[in-house]
Each structure stands twice: as C-alpha cells, then as structure tokens.
Amino acid sequence: MSDYIRDASEIYRNSFAIIRSEANLNVLPPDVAKVAVRLIHACGMTDIVTDLGYSSTAAQAGRAALAAGAAILCDCRMVAEGVTRKRLSANNQVICTLYEPEVPEMAKHLGTTRSAAALELWHSYLEGAVVAIGNAPTALFRLLEMLDEGAPKPALILGFPVGFVGAAESKAALAADSRNVPFITLHGRRGGSAIAAAAVNALATEEE
Amino acid sequence: MSDYIRDASEIYRNSFAIIRSEANLNVLPPDVAKVAVRLIHACGMTDIVTDLGYSSTAAQAGRAALAAGAAILCDCRMVAEGVTRKRLSANNQVICTLYEPEVPEMAKHLGTTRSAAALELWHSYLEGAVVAIGNAPTALFRLLEMLDEGAPKPALILGFPVGFVGAAESKAALAADSRNVPFITLHGRRGGSAIAAAAVNALATEEE
C-alpha cells in the first residue's frame, strides 16, 4: 500500500509512457495521435485507436480555434467540468445550456430530448466554436440538422456520445457527412464526457 | 437522419432492453445486476460485467444509506455533476472537496496528489457516507490508508478510478481488503466519473 506513486507529474509521465508503448498510434497522423493519447488516458483503453474517426484538418482547426478564444459548447455539465481551465490560454468560454430554465418546455414543444433542445440556445455561439458532445446522441443528430438548416458553422465537432441507442448511428452520420466541419469522433457505442473533455484538453495546449 | 429516436423515455427503455439482452447479467446477484445495467448504460460496454467486484451487502448497504440521507463524497466534480439530483429522495449532500482553497498547499505538504489531499477534508462527512471515486487512484489508495488510521467508516465505497498508473492496483487493494466496508468496483484500467456517478444513481432509487 505505501509504495503507490503519489507524485502527480510522475503519474502523468508514466501514464503517457505506457500509452505510447502499448497503443498502435502509428496508424494516426501525428497531430491526431497526440489527441488520441489523451483520449486513451481518459478512458484507460488503448484499443480505441481502431475506432477513431477524424477529418484531416480537425486537430489543426481545433488548436487554432481554441488559441484564438473559441467558445467551447458542451452538451452536458460533466463535459464542461472536465475541461481543464488552466489549459485554455485564451480564457475561452465553456458553455452548457442544458440546465437553462426554458429547456424542458422547449424539449416538450419540439418533441425531442432536453439534450437536443438545449442546442437551440447555441445559435449565437456556434460560429467558429468548438463543440464537445460527450453524452447525448440526440444532441449530435440535432447539431447536424441545424447545420443542414443553415446554422453557423463551428470550427470543430468533437463527437463522443455514448451508449446503445443512437450513439453509433449519430457518429456514423457525422463521419459520413460532417457538413464541411472538421470533426473527431469515436465510432461505436463507446464515448462519454471524460473522452469529450479530454479531446478539448488535448487541443487546448501542446503541453502534455 | 430524420428517423432517430427523440423520446427520452423510449431511448432509456430501448437502451436498458439492449443491455439486458446482451449482457451476461446472470452471473451477478439480482441487486448487483441492477446496478450493472446502469454502469453499462454509462459506458456503452456490456463486457464490464466480467470485471465487476463487489461485496455481498454492497447494493443493499448503498440503497439503505442513500435512502437515509447519506452524504455522497466524490473525488472530482465530474462525478458530482453526474449524480442525478432528482433521484436522491433524501436530498443528500453531494460533496467534492478537490477545489477547496487549502488543497494545493496540503498536497504539497503531504507529498501527494491534490485528489488524495482533498480527502483530508472528508473526515467529518465519512461516517455512513457513500464514497464515489471516479477519477484518481491516489484518492482510493488514500481512503484505504485513512481507514487503517482509524477514520470513520463510510457505508459504501464505489471505487471506479480509471487509467494506467495505480487504477488497477488501487481497486485490487480495495477488493482484497475493504476494511469491512461494503464496496463495488470495476477491476482493471477501466472506470471513470460517468461509471461512478451511474453507480450512485443506480442505488439512489429502484426506478430505472
């Protein structure tokens, strides 16, 4: 018991060393591989590399947007909590509209989930933003619909909804046609708020 | 695109039906199986059943404690955010001390991580509490040390730290000797705040 590692920097260093030694990062472009290291770190699974989907400019677009102060739009508060503020050099806004008081009524009116309805409050922030979806497939589906309806384009979509109904489908829809928005996603059922937040954290600074 | 399921209740129902049809829940006692369904729902992986560890009274102890108003002690704010407040019938306190102002200095003084140092502020809440660790192995290691040092016993330990350094080891230490505290854990590297919060949510009410 008394011999566990207590030094945070050493824990990070060792973690990343294990990830780099075990994960098959060579199949990824270097800028995506760097993001993948943090995604793996967040979930403990090196085999997610196989399921990563991304557009060629995604990492670069995300880094540039965050450095320039892009807002970070999150589908749930767990993602917003997972974004490490001290990694955000431009004091970026981290926004989650899920608990805004009008959302439950909007969801009823629109016949959809609260997670999807909450995106109606994103319009004024969407242009050039980094979108991080870590929970709700319906939020990712709705985002794609909004883009089809002419909503302003974000700089990057980090699409990591999780689960058994719609998660794989919404991520497949994103990867099949991201409406010319750069994206990073994890195909299949896996995903989640920790992975979505880790993607933001990876792109916020080059520092590991 | 237009045919995705938008009804939250239907999404839940379908998700749980898929989980029950695919996961090998028969190897678990019924009360643990019910918790497992929500853990699987949170991470999208049915195969975590194999890695679950638990003591025989854990689910029962957790339900009783939460119903009686036990505090919920979380190692990070993502876990605290993931606890669904409306499932808590006794208006339980949800406590995370990680960002208390004295923690960084305490961590330096104690030569440990902030996540572990934050537990020093748990003493007055520990008795009969439900502890939910979803991030830091050092927090789980420190909790076991505190119990060895005579700290008050929580009602239940939900041990779900994630990652490559100490996660598997801290969970193995918990399962090998939980200091007579009921526990639920997920062996290996997998874990995380969504799973830890899902365990609390599963035990907070019988309602799915």
Automatic annotation (TrEMBL), chains A, B:
Enzyme type, top EC level: isomerase
Could you tell me one molecular function GO term of this UniProt entry? Answer: precorrin-8X methylmutase activity
Keywords of this protein's UniProt record, alphabetized?
Cobalamin biosynthesis, Isomerase
Indicate whether Isomerase appears among the record's keywords. Answer: yes
Q: Which InterPro entries match?
A: Cbl_synth_CobH/CbiC (IPR003722), CobH/CbiC_sf (IPR036588)
Which ranges carry the Cobalamin biosynthesis precorrin-8X methylmutase CobH/CbiC domain?
10-205
Which pathway?
Answer: Cofactor biosynthesis; adenosylcobalamin biosynthesis
Enzyme Commission (EC) number: 5.4.99.61
The alphabetized list of GO BP terms reads: cobalamin biosynthetic process
Q: Which Pfam families does the protein's record reference?
A: CbiC
Which protein family is named in the record?
Answer: Belongs to the CobH/CbiC family.
Protein name as it appears in the record? Precorrin-8X methylmutase
Provenance organism? Atlanticothrix silvestris CENA357
